[in-house]
Amino acid sequence: MNILVTGGGGFLGKAIIDQLLDKKYKVTNFSRSLYKELERKGVTCIQGDIKNPQDVLKASEGQDAIIHVASKVGMWGKWSDFYDTNVTGTENVINSCIKNHIKKLVYTSSPSVVFGKDDLQNADESTPYPDKYIGLYAHSKAIAEKKVLESSTSPKLLTTALRPHLIFGEKDPNLIPRLVKAAKEGRLKQVGPGQNLVDVIYVENAAYAHILALEKLYPSSPICGKAYFLGQEAPVNLWEFINRILNIHGLPPVKKTISFKKAYFLGALIEKTLGLLRKYSADPPMTRFIATQLSKSHYFSHKNAFTELGYHPLLTTEKALERLSTAQ
Question: Partners of 282 in the beta sheet?
């Protein structure tokens, strides 16, 4: 089977490609950049822009399935940038599947698509999309996810969406480096009382779920047109988890604190200021979304992923953290 992975040069994308290769699939990567390390593994690499429909259409020729991982991730920016990549880019993928008679589409979504301002505790896939979003990334991913799920019209195109939460691992270029950098610079503060529970997922477990979804997409499958939350065997206390990560990197635990109310106000003020100055490429230390994510509980039921996808974590959280420690 020929599989196209969009965004295969990223953290999750590389893990998905490795597992596809292990199962002897023929893999093509479609990204903005070329990745020699993937080519050395036997992956065909096609360079292009997900926002360009012709680029996507050409890259998907001759493919049997697409795993659409590519997206614009960020806590701040211009709505048009998030929309063009995450929504228009996904539309291009869907249209290319239809035009090139590709039967399977696995979409990498995010639990943030159902996150508003309140705690989410053991929420399942019946949780509705919020009426209002406080993050552009979450909003754009929700629009794209809806389009993917609505396009699951058996037998022409079968789709499913996966919602992995806070992906971590040894080669993580985003989450862990940002935490470590902020801690080293003395900018990392605990938001709220520090009792919030969150889901996390080890990158190999997230990749494994994508392979399961690919192989379970067939006309009578219960996963067609559905979304699934993904995580480890149990949620973690966010700040205990962060302090464990910092300890692995030889750093002390977080001591400074700030209330959610103050952090949220600061985030709103920063967003307003950056918007007035039109500084959309900035990397703000706080936004309303960050304040909420760092102080609220957001963990989910994985029952549907267990029963319908057949997903169970390959590595426990403890084993994954041991790998992180060994890699340092």
Answer: none
- What is the model's pLDDT at position 271? 96
Nearest to 241 by CA among 303, 320, 161: 320
Handedness of CA 259, 261, 265, 268 (dihedral sign): positive
Cis peptide before 253 (omega within 30 of 0): no
Residue 163's φ and ψ, nearest 5 degrees, are -120, 75
Residue 63: how many CB atoms within 10 A of its CB?
A: 23
Mark whether 264 is an active-site residue: no
Domains (range + CATH), the chain: 2-167+200-233+298-315 (3.40.50.720)
* Range 135-138, long-range pairs (CB < 8 A, 24+ positions): 135/75, 135/287, 135/288, 135/289, 136/74, 136/76, 136/77, 136/79, 136/82, 137/72, 137/73, 137/74, 137/75, 137/82, 137/86, 137/110, 137/112, 137/289, 138/110, 138/112, 138/113, 138/289
Instruction: Choose among 162, 121, 129, 141: nearest CA to 300.
Output: 121
Backbone angles phi, psi at 236, to 5 degrees: -120, 155
pLDDT per residue as tens digits for the range 40-69 = 999 999 999 999 999 999 999 999 999 999
- Which residues have CB under 8 Å from 99's CB, separation 6+? 57
Instruction: Find all residues with CB under 8 Å of 245, minimum gap 6, and list them.
Output: 168, 176, 179, 180, 324
> Which residues fall within 8 angstroms of residue 45, CB to CB, at 6 or more apart?
28, 29, 31, 34, 35, 38, 39
Beta-bridge mates of residue 230? 164
Report the alpha-carbon angle 148-70-73, nearest 5: 100
Which of 83, 107, 133, 137 is labelled catalytic? 137
- pTM beyond 0.85: the answer is yes
Residue 154 has pLDDT above 80, yes or no: no
- The size of the chain, in residues, is 328
Cα distances (angstroms) measured from residue 304 to each of 38, 269, 278, 298? 33, 39, 43, 17
